[in-house]
Amino acid sequence: MHSTFVVHKNYESLKPLLKDAIKHFSEMGEYVTQGERNVIKKVTIEGETFNIKKFKTPNVFQGFVYQFLRKSKAKRSFEYATKLIDCNIKTPFPVGYSETFSAGLKESYYISKHVAYDFDFRDLIHQPRFPDRKEILKQFAAFSYQLHENNINFLDHSPGNTLIKKTEDGTYEFYLIDLNRMTFEPLNLDKRMHNLRRLWLSKTMIRILAEAYSILYGSSYDETHTLLVRHSRHFQHKVNSKKLRRRKR
């Protein structure tokens, strides 16, 4: 058995304490999420608050793949977060990651700085009268445009993976989370609108985003709107069809 523990240079002084937090993960801190796949806990160390994400233990085959053929989700999360920050795209600051191997990957953790956000993108979907909703969506379009201009295709660009914080000057900051699935490639307009398909956008939200994005990209509103509608509705229909099939079983 051997382990890897990597900490960002800014947090090298806290490395022993962070390592101890992972060692005593089940006893320390408070739960943020307790999902079937992953668990996130919030811990405070030396006055700073961190989120520690424990990834689900992979099966034997997956464990072998993560040891010899592909980077673990924890390592990818750390590296992708670092890349996002280098591109001036916000995400909870990447602090470190831990991997334990024994005939394959057995355990992995990702540590990031805790972000005290105000709401997430889901609130804009479920609350059509959310305060300043139109302006938030316009700024979100600019945020997504910046992501795409940096050739970043965030494959999990879904409602729960964007945290939103209102600043003192009335603008909004967007933080991406759950980062382990990305590709890096030039994106044309079709691919950009395809990347937004998972956001479960309503007709009104599509109109606002398409208008704001088309201005930034230099495309026509009609073309941008048509592509975003097509990809969004196709994705929603696909997900709803799966749910319907499950109910009939």
Question: How is this structure best described in words?
Answer:
- The protein has 249 residues and is of the alpha+beta class.
- The chain has helices spanning 15-23, 60-68, 73-86, 121-126, 133-149, 189-195, 203-217, 221-248, and strands spanning 2-7, 30-34, 39-45, 48-54, 94-101, 105-113, 119-120, 152-154, 162-166, 172-176, 182-184.
- Helix 5 (133-149) packs across helix 7 (203-217).
- The model has no long low-confidence stretch (mean pLDDT 94).
List the helices and strands and how they pair.
Blueprint: E1 2-7, H1 15-23, E2 30-34, E3 39-45, E4 48-54, H2 60-68, H3 73-86, E5 94-101, E6 105-113, E7 119-120, H4 121-126, H5 133-149, E8 152-154, E9 162-166, E10 172-176, E11 182-184, H6 189-195, H7 203-217, H8 221-248
Antiparallel strand pairs: 1-5, 2-3, 3-4, 4-6, 5-6, 7-9, 8-11, 9-10
Helix pairs in contact: 5-7, 6-8, 7-8
